[in-house]
Amino acid sequence: MSATYHILTQKDLHPAGQQEHDFSTDVLIGLSQMPKQLSSKYFYDERGSQLFQEIMELPEYYLTSCEFEIISEQKEKISQDMAGEPFNLIEFGTGDGRKTKILLKNFLKKGFEFYYIPIDISEAAMKTLIKSMNKEFPELKTEGIVAEYFNGLKWLKNTAFRKNLVLFLGSNLGNFDKAHSRAFLHNLWNILNNGDSVVIGFDLKKDIDLMLKAYNDSQGVTAEFNLNLLRRINRELGGNFDLEKFRFYAGYDVFTGAIESYLVSLEQQEVFIEKIGQSFVFNSWEPIHTEYSYKYLESDIEELAGRTGFFIKKQLYDSKSYFVDSVWIVNKQDRHV
Ligand SMILES: C[S@@+](CC[C@H](N)C(=O)[O-])C[C@H]1O[C@@H](n2cnc3c(N)ncnc32)[C@H](O)[C@@H]1O
């Protein structure tokens, strides 16, 4: 059986979900706001997905190596709960799946009967993932879904009948602000069945310079990753952003516990976007907010699980305790949220 994917459309959602904003509407809304903002979910065109793969190789970007170590060395702690029954392995924001492949290999070795459902907004990333799944795991039953996380949740409502194991790795959840992470997790809890498990990667609060270096990397790959969003607007929406006139900046907000990423306009300028049919004025040093990367304390994780209806079953740390893969269980008998 070969791996395939499909792009989720409104027709796949029952009942049909609210019409989603498209890229141009989100750019119009984001650049009309004060402060201006563009969503990090639009980073991942083909070039953006490649750049993120480069970020994962950077020595400063400890998140990937820490989570890789956790999954490599503690995969049995995740696998041991999955024996017996057939299940769905659902993954949000898979990217190139390099860490997931360790689990997939282990599950296949154990003869588990499961269906792998990666969900990712980026068709480019999904195409590459499906190709590599067919090559590396030809026996794996895989159906990829190209969708935004919340649409993926709506689709899962009609799919999640079997036992489910949900992966949300790479501290992807950290890109949501607090309200969105609660909404996402609570929604997920509602869809899942009693006894289902969720594995969420959290980047832990630590030395501020260390966290900052992961984003302000010496090779400037993260800067290029952010600037590529302007290039995407130019290509897909007919924008005339001059990338030389913006710089990347990432800082840590000690109050919210988030690394916040920005593109800062280096001069007063006007940018026209053809598909929107409008110009946008930027003042000198005016920022566009591009990404949140929230960092957590153990107590933040406990609060989040408690508020959204999950029980924490295991905390899997790397050897430096920089990162944790938190294994949560759905227990609907004792909890009504
Ligand atoms: C930071 S990468 C992490 C990839 C992988 N989980 C890992 O740990 O290596 C985020 C991935 O999530 C996807 N993504 C980002 N925002 C998304 C959204 N709102 N809905 C669905 N996928 C999203 C991106 O396309 C990208 O592949």
Explain what you see:
With 337 residues, the protein is α/β, with parallel strands linked by helices. It has helices at residues 23-32, 46-57, 62-79, 100-109, 123-136, 149-156, 178-191, 208-215, 221-237, 298-308; strands spanning 4-7, 36-37, 87-92, 114-120, 141-146, 163-168, 197-203, 246-253, 258-265, 269-273, 278-282, 287-294, 310-317, 323-330. The strands form three sheets. It has an eight-stranded mixed sheet, with helices on both faces. Strand 6 (163-168), helix 7 (178-191) and strand 7 form a beta-alpha-beta unit. Helix 2 runs antiparallel to helix 9 and helix 7 crosses helix 10. S-adenosylmethionine binds next to loops.
Topology overview:
Layout lengths: L3 E4 L15 H10 L3 E2 L8 H12 L4 H18 L7 E6 L7 H10 L4 E7 L2 H14 L4 E6 L2 H8 L6 E6 L9 H14 L5 E7 L4 H8 L5 H17 L8 E8 L4 E8 L3 E5 L4 E5 L4 E8 L3 H11 L1 E8 L5 E8 L7
Parallel strand pairs: 1-5, 2-12, 3-4, 3-6, 4-5, 6-7
Antiparallel strand pairs: 7-14, 8-9, 9-12, 10-11, 13-14
Helix pairs in contact: 2-9, 3-4, 6-7, 7-10
Order of helices and strands: EHEHHEHEHEHEHEHHEEEEEHEE
Question: In what range is the share of β-strand residues?
Answer: 25-35%
Shape: globular
Question: Which class do the helix and strand fractions yield?
Answer: alpha/beta
Radius of gyration: 20 Å
Low-confidence segments: none
Round the mean pLDDT to the nearest integer and report it. Answer: 94
Bound molecules: S-adenosylmethionine
Biggest sheet, open or closed, and with what strands and sense?
8 strands, mixed
> Care to count the β-strands?
14
**Total of DSSP H or I helical runs spanning 4+ residues:** 10
Instruction: Report helical residue fraction.
Output: 25-40%
Q: Give me the side-by-side strand order of the main sheet.
A: 1-5-4-3-6-7-14-13
- Alpha-carbon distance between the two ends: 40 Å
